[in-house]
Structures are given as C-alpha cells and as structure tokens.
Write a structure and sequence with these properties.
homodimer, about 240 residues, Arc Repressor Mutant, subunit A, seven-stranded mixed beta sheet, 10 strands, about 30% helix, DNA-binding
DNA sequence: CCAAAAGTGTTGAAATTACACCCATGT
DNA sequence: ACATGGGTGTAATTTCAACACTTTTGG
C-alpha cells in the first residue's frame, strides 16, 4: 500500500522454488534437477517456476510440482521469501521458497526422470544454483522445528507405516538415535495412531505392526489445544551443516 | 526459475506491510494508520509500502518504519506472503507481511501523529483494509509461538525493565494470568537477566528492581543450544479471536 | 537353532504446578 | 498505620531419561 497510484510503482518477477523432501528407507532425500537449458545449463537446481500474473504462489508451486512428480495435494508450506536485489543476475526476481513433503513411493518415476530430476540423500547434495543452498538449509531447519511440535512426519510416510519406520524418520530428520521405548511411549500417548491388524515383514522376520494416522482424531485434539510436542528425544540434535 | 527467458514472464507489484507491536503499560498495542489519501481514504490500514526494484523487502520495511516512527534497527521478521490473485483490487500485488517489535517509548511522537498513525490496543482494533486483519491475526499467532521459545519479548520493553513488567508482557501476549513465583523462577533460571542496583518506583511504593537483558550471554547460550522454552505458564492460553 | 529386528517396564532425576505469607514504603 | 504492589519457598505431581531383556520367525 502506498500513496502513489499503482502505475507509477515498480514491478518485478516473482518466482517460487520448491524444497521437496522425501523419505526413503531410512534416508531423508531431496528432489532436485539438473538443468538441461539455459540459464545455468548443467547445474543443479531446485524445482521452481515463475508465478504468473493470474495465479497465486501456491498454485504456481502446485503446478510445477505436478508437472514434475505427477502428484497433487501434496503437503506444502511457505518457507520464506528470498529477495535480495541481486540474487538472480538475470533480472530482479523475488522467489518464495516452499517446502513440500512427499511420500516417496507415490511419485511418477517416468515423469521425474524425463525432467532430469532425481532424489539426492540430504547429506550428499551437490551445489545448487543461486541461493538454493540456503533455501535447503532453511527448509531443514523449518522441517525440524515443525516436526517438533506437529506430527508432520506422517506426510513423508506411506499411509500405512510401522513404528520402527516412524522412528527412523525422526532419526533422519534430527540426525540422532532415539531410544525406541521412549519413542513408542511418546508417540502412542498422543492417541492419533491406529494400530492395524497387519504386519510389514519387509524388514524383519518377526514383522512390525502397521499403523495409520488418525486425521480426524488429530484435528479434534488440535482444536482442543493439545500439545504434540516431542521435545524429549529431540534435544541436542546435530546442527545443520 | 524457468526454461523461458525473463522477458517473456509476468511482472507484478510487490509490497510489504508491517504489523508493528508495542507494549504499553500492560497492554499490547498495534501501530496502524488512518489513510488520508486514496485508495481507501479514511480507512484503517497497516503501515506499508511498495518494494522498489532496487531494494530488498527488508529495506522497504525499514524505510517505511523509519519514515513513520523515526526508528531504525527495529526487531523485524518476515511473517509470510499474502498473494491471492485478487487481494488488492487495484492491481496484482503480492504483499509480504513483516512483524516488528517496538519499545513503545522510543518512537517519534510527532512523526507518528503527522502520518495519522496511532497505537491501538490489540483487542480494540478497528477493521483494516484488504487482508490486513488476517495479517494481524497471523502476526499474533507468530508472536506467541516465537515468544514461547525465544526471549523475544525484550524487544518490546525498555532497556531497563522490572520483572513485574516482563510478566505483564507475557500475560498480555498470552492473555493469561501467570503465577509470579513460577514466572520469576523460570525466567531467572535462564541466566540472561542482569539485576541492576536501581528500582523503578513508578508503579509501587516499594519499587521493583530493574533488570537488563544480557545479549552477550544470550548469544553464548544460543550457540550452546540452550533451550529458552517457557512452555510451563503458557499452556492453555486463549485462542486468537 | 540362531540371527535380526520388534516389542515391552521400571526407576531415579528433573521440571512443573499449586499455593500463602512477609516486605518495603509513600501517603 | 495501612494500602499497595514486590518479593520469596516448599511439597505434591508429572514428565523425562536412562536402561536390558524377551519375543517372533525365516532361513
């Protein structure tokens, strides 16, 4: 808002870049792509797009995410803006970082491959263009903060998952071993996990019971103001990079 | 980032709106202004500005903040973007909300008055233009979250303050009475308050000791990973509006 | 039968909550 | 001398952190 009329004001490009997390077999991964066209041909980059004049930033992110992974209705949240004047040497362009969590088995492999995109383990990431390295760093910090107070991790797991898988996800996010007895006690105490009558035997002979997340119950508890904090096993985790 | 060259991409206006908190005598306040010119002449609005092509969003916010309050080096942080396509009927304009914390005695009264700006108690706010009501709501939620984990409240108090003042600030932010014994125990336990040899007698005959915030010690503890959480007296606070 | 992962309880320590009285002083 | 807000301590409860063994079963 300003006292001047709109026409006398500057306009600039607006873009969005997606920091896409996935969790695969105990390893936290990020979806990035190798640019096959200028600018920065051959360099690694986050997946992003300019925002069109008649779409919201979310829509732009959803659009590009679907284009590359085939997925809709992905968990996505605004991280922050990246707006230093010369961050993009091509033009004044403000980018809004958004981080997304993906169930890593759901995405469309062919589509991803076709776009030169690939999953990289979080701690083996190559250098990215522009300020994308910073975006990644910020996104992990945010994921950690968020995970600490909200059972957000379920967005990264398949609909049915085992407690050892869930624990392994937390361990990957916080880069820290967690005591399984304390972990189970805590996550079960929230009462938002439904134990199924099925086992997953893919990682042990005994097999681990599958659970699913009770979204309804969760919403109910949220409105009651229940606290889903899991600070216990999360203190003193590894700093970011 | 996109495969197209920049020139073929849309450009739009970028603005920033500041949600400016102050704390005055036990009451949390917000600095808003009555527009004296079109558009929305006569309506209440947050303080904001378009972002110029050669300035960062922070600079724009700092610029407008100084223009209206005379203050520099104010604590300010990005909230989120407000970007729905038709949020501003005048033109496509994305606004980045930023919330700022101000020591309410420092600002330049004449300047503020000259700009038709004024402090409103948080729960007596008039309707604001566009999506500014939402911005305010979001900012309070953020302030609460932030206050819970960081001793951010000091930005709202004068350099020297008393513990009763500090408690009153927390009570204003969370809209909740706090037990003074528990409050003192907790905030003093962090070891970032320096007790001065002075008393403030403005609110009692006995007078209350003044303290100041130990920024150095605080930074030191932060790098050590110390937790400044004050969840204790903050559970079950009043929901926002 | 054994290797490998799943599952389970207890206990001491620490943090949180609830709670009520004395102190200092200006009027 | 009294009204007003400042300042303090303790005990009961809850939560956390540390710790090791048994179960299941495919090979």
């Amino acid at each position: 808002m300003s006292k001047d009329s709109y026409s006398s004001q500057d306009k600039m490009h607006l873009a969005t870049d997606c920091i896409i997390f996935g969790f695969d077999n105990g390893i936290l991964k990020l979806l990035i792509f190798k640019r096959s066209i200028a600018p920065y041909k051959g360099a690694f980059s986050l997946i992003g797009s300019f925002v069109k004049i008649n779409e919201s930033i979310d829509s732009a992110a959803e659009r590009v995410l679907e284009e590359i992974t085939g997925l809709k209705n992905v968990y996505m949240e605004e991280l922050k803006t990246y707006n230093s004047v010369h961050r993009d040497p091509g033009a004044r362009c403000v980018s809004v970082g958004q981080y997304a969590l993906i169930k890593i088995n759901d995405y469309d492999k062919d589509l991803v491959e076709k776009h030169n995109a690939m999953w990289y383990p979080f701690n083996e990431l190559p250098d990215l263009v522009l300020d994308h390295n910073q975006m990644v760093k910020d996104a992990l910090a945010r994921l950690r903060r968020k995970t600490r107070y909200q059972p957000i991790g379920f967005e990264l797991l398949p609909t049915k998952f085992t407690l050892p898988q869930l624990q392994s996800l937390y361990e990957a996010i916080f880069q820290k071993k967690i005591d399984s007895r304390n972990f189970r006690k805590k996550v079960l105490s929230f009462g938002v996990l439904i134990k199924l009558n099925e086992k997953d035997r893919s990682s042990s002979k005994k097999g681990a019971f599958l659970y699913k997340f009770d979204h309804e119950k969760y919403e109910e508890l949220v409105t009651k103001g229940i606290n889903f904090e899991v600070r216990s096993f999360i203190n003193n985790y590894e700093p970011i990079i």
